[in-house]
Structure formats: C-alpha cells, structure tokens
Design a protein that fits this description.
This protein has eleven helices and no strands. The chain is globular. By secondary structure, the chain is mainly alpha-helical. The protein has one domain. It binds fe (ii) ion (2 copies). The site of one fe (ii) ion (FE2) has 5 residues, from helix 2 and helix 5. The site of one fe (ii) ion has 5 residues, from helix 2 and helix 5.
C-alpha cells in the first residue's frame, strides 16, 4: 500500500460550520472538536516519523514515509482553514488549538523519541478506526449533511486508511522486538485513550456552549451519546479494533479494508465539482494565504 500526496481543496461553506451535520449542532461540534487536534497532532506525527527516517533502509518504506508526510501536510493545511471558520464564527478554536500545541510541544521535550513514536502509532490507530467506521457506515457523515464538510472528512478518512500502517511499519523497523516494545506500545494506547477522549469531551462542551445558534444545549448531549454508543454507535463499534491493538502480533492491515480506497479518485472529482459549483470566490483570500 503506497500513500500518495493529493492536493485537495474541499469547499466548506463558512455559514454551515456550526450545523453542517444532518443531526444538528451537537454532532457537528463533536466532529468539529476532532478537527481542532489535527494541525498540532499531525505535525507531531510527521516529526515523530521523521526522527527515524534515517534508520529506514527499505526503499518501499522510505517512499511510504514520503507519501505519509505529504498526506498529513495536506490534511493539516485543510484543517487549519476548517478551524479558522470556527474561530470566525465566534467559537474558541484558537485557544484550544494552542492547548494541543503546548501539550505536544511538552511531550516532544520530555519524552524519548521512541515514546513519541509510540504516541503516534496509538493515535494513528485511532484515526484508522474512526476512518473505517466512517467509510463503512454512511450514517456517520449522513446523507443530508452539507456536502463540502462530508467530503473533507471522507477524503481524510480514505487517506488515513491508505497510510494507516506507515508509522507502525517504522515502529517495527526501528524498535527491537520484545517485551519492552510490546509494553511501551500498549501502555501508550491506554494513556492516549484517557487523555485524548478527555480533551475531546472538554473541547466538545466548549464548542457547544460557545455556539449562540445552538438550542437545547444540555438536551442535545443525549443525541451525542446515542450517536457514539447507540445508533450508529461510532465508539461502540470501535471496541473490537481497540482490543485488537493489544495482540502481540497486531498489524494495522490485519483489518483489511483496502477495498474502500477505490473511492478516492471519484471522491476527488466530486470535491473539485463541488468547489467549481460553489465558485472560486468562496475561498476567502485571507484563508488562501494560510495555506
Ligand atoms: Fe491526517
Ligand atoms: Fe494519519
């Protein structure tokens, strides 16, 4: 599986940033909260793989690393724009983004490089699990959601699937096999699970509370619990794959969902068609500058 960098510009109508999902503001903000992690998070992933690039001698894996970095860079660029739409709508995306940067800068300073890579493979497993759910079940994004937002997440999910094993293959290449490698990998999954979801929870609440257009602020969280744990059960359905990570011989491609990747090229054509229909002027010049 060879990841390819694709220069994609999904069109995100700014006026829909708070309610682009068909299930309304609360689900929209749950998914928006995930977007806040990407600029700092994906930089961290790229850096922790770059730290070991020189130790990789297999030319295939070296090429995959280049594709992985290229894809994450494109995701970062589009999520910076996405997050700026939240900020422009009066939502506190910038301070939360700074919190993620501070935390990950701290990890960069205090953790050995191997621990940083362990965090990356744990979080890449999370993105792969979320991506797989989204690609398998159309109700995660919804059929009546605003097209551009559904497209940016579907594109991201497809590329996360395409490169899901790259950081893991680097890990297996540079870390000596044995008990220490297994314990570091699995222990990090446990700590990452607690901290990541605690932060998502707090960010989600802050977005909902700051959204003046959102009615029934407290009641709406019932819909989020149903979305995550009932139907469609975004988190509930991830549980088997979360446990799979603890198998000693785990590999991301044990869950073979490569058939989904046939959707990439048609999706990119749709993204371009959507952007053309919306008109080039819809992307504000200030936002272009950020790219
Ligand atoms: Fe990504
Ligand atoms: Fe990724």
């Amino acid at each position: 599986m060879m990841p390819v960098r694709r220069d994609v510009h999904p069109h995100l109508p700014p006026e829909r940033i708070s309610d682009w999902h068909e299930r309304g503001n609360h689900i929209t903000h749950f998914i928006n909260a995930l977007s806040i992690f990407f600029p700092a998070g994906e930089r961290f992933f790229m850096d922790s793989v770059r730290n070991y690039r020189d130790q990789v001698t297999d030319p295939e894996l070296s090429r995959a690393i280049a594709g992985f970095i290229g894809q994450e860079a494109m995701h970062t660029r589009e999520h910076i724009l996405y997050n700026r739409l939240m900020e422009d709508a009066g939502l506190p995306a910038a301070p939360m983004d700074r919190t993620v940067w501070k935390l990950l800068d701290l990890l960069r300073k205090i953790l050995p490089k191997s621990w940083q890579l362990a965090h990356t493979i744990a979080l890449e497993h999370y993105t792969a699990m979320l991506a797989d759910g989204l690609l398998r079940d159309g109700s995660h994004m919804g059929t009546r959601s605003e097209t551009g937002y559904a497209q940016v997440w579907t594109w991201h999910a497809l590329e996360e699937t395409e490169h899901k094993a790259v950081a893991y293959d680097v890990w297996n290449t540079v870390m000596k096999p044995g008990l220490y490698r297994y314990l570091l990998r699995t222990f990090t999954m446990l700590t990452t699970t607690v901290t990541f979801w605690a932060m998502v929870f707090v960010f989600h609440i802050r977005l909902v509370m700051a959204d003046k257009t959102c009615r029934n602020k407290l009641l709406g969280f019932g819909g989020v619990i149903k979305f995550l744990w009932g139907s469609p059960g975004v988190l509930r359905k991830m549980i088997p794959e979360w446990f799979a990570y603890f198998r000693p011989g785990f590999h991301p491609w044990d869950a073979d969902n490569r058939a989904q990747l046939a959707r990439i090229e048609p999706l990119i054509a749709e993204i371009e068609a959507t952007a053309i229909r919306a008109g080039a002027s819809t992307r504000a010049p200030s936002l272009r500058g950020a790219a």
